[in-house]
Write a structure and sequence with these properties.
The chain has helices at 2-54, 61-80, 84-94, 112-123, 140-152, 165-174, 196-216, 252-271, 293-302, 325-337, 368-379, 404-410, 418-433, 437-448; strands at 103-107, 127-132, 156-159, 179-182, 222-228, 275-280, 283-284, 306-311, 319-320, 323-324, 355-360, 366-367, 384-389. It is α/β, with parallel strands linked by helices and 449 residues long. The N and C termini lie far apart (125 Å). Bound molecules: uridine-5'-diphosphate-glucuronic acid. The chain crosses the membrane at residues 35-57.
Amino acid sequence: MALSSDLSKSTKLERYNSYLRRVNNTKLLAASSKLLFRATLLVALLLVFFFTLNYPITGNDAQNNASIHTTSRFFSSGFYGSGATWEKQVRQSSTPRRPNGFSILVTGAAGFVGTHCSIALKKRGDGVLGLDNFNRYYDPSLKRARQKLLSRQQIFIVEADLNDNPMLMKLFDIVPFTHVLHLAAQAGVRYAMQNPQSYIQSNIAGFVNLLEVTKAADPQPAIVWASSSSVYGLNKDNPFSETDRTDQPASLYAATKKAGEEIAHTYNHIYGLSLTGLRFFTVYGPWGRPDMAYFFFTKDILQGKPISIYKTHDGEEVQRDFTYIDDIVKGCVGALDTAEKSTGSGGKKRGPAQLRVYNLGNTSPVPVARLVSILEGLLNVKAKKHLITMPRNGDVPYTHANVTLARKDFAYKPTTDLATGLRKFVKWYVGYYGVQPSVKKETTSNAAK
Ligand SMILES: O=C(O)[C@H]1O[C@H](OP(=O)(O)OP(=O)(O)OC[C@H]2O[C@@H](n3ccc(=O)[nH]c3=O)[C@H](O)[C@@H]2O)[C@H](O)[C@@H](O)[C@@H]1O
């Protein structure tokens, strides 16, 4: 009995112990699967976070742009914008190689005008650091090709958005820039109806962010920036002079550029920033912008697609003061060379500073139909032309620059006529896109004349 009761006691004890082990095991299992679940959740969340930032999957341009901005901001400040190698590239690129050379931050350096200006400045011995967000307004592969061109000249581009305040502050901490050539913008007159917010984001918010950072910098740099001939809007005076009225913009694009000019006045007035706005007149040339008429006309003519040539609502020819890129580069360099120093430092004004606005045009308006016939000759292809009344999309019928002021202050003198400039453009175009040898032959023989 005693044995059986002992046995039953020990069996009970064993059962109890095994029960406890099972409970413990289950608890352990539950705890570890909880831990595993949490870890998996964390990893999944991190993956979603990174993928959302890297690959915006929306088809909407405005949202796309916003995602692109977020991506570059995140990566630029958090990853690319740190590290000894990155900082060394920033320093090397912005260090001048000539006595009293400038140290210039070029925003929009992978853009059309930005690329040409950066190369010209670097070649004469200035230090040039680029900034660009490589957005998708037009084919980013063209921007990457321009970046390669710049990197061959030892020009480094920081990949970040103008609105990336920590990144801009960091750059100004590392480099005592003497100048900023501010060319980054949401360009294009007609696209403003499709994606208005992108113009506010870049041309207003981005510009203000840049001015906020530069006003606080010590030393404050002098700033030369891209305004636009479109600010003249519905101006009737001819040719357009800087003193003409600019309070009737015909597009949101023009309105944001005009707003930029007013914002420039404010920062000059309060903080003593030296500011020069350049009103570019329809700039064209090699490495140009695919969204501009001369560029997509070339593409469409070569592909046998029809093109629309606008006429005004009064049936008149639409005309532009097309300006060749090399002339614009000379104008930008002239404006930089004559820009006086900002007078403030660390956010405080110490005296009055320079505030300027200049037209940079070619001074000879050409009808769009004439541009097309020059292209037809160069490409050796007849265009399928449709003459249509200008849609109400922000376009203006006519532009014509008076450049007296730029000539007086920095000897600006455009020297390239439209036929010569377009020949250079077409030569570049056929080489870059590798099109028709017949076009090449024609262009080369023309070029030799
Ligand atoms: O200089 C300026 O202020 C502006 O010049 C260009 O704007 P835009 O002159 O309109 O240049 P394009 O878009 O290349 O148009 C050139 C001409 O072709 C005409 N056009 C355009 C498109 C089209 O399908 N057909 C057509 O006849 C336009 O009305 C315009 O007269 C740039 O796109 C702006 O960024 C710049 O600020």
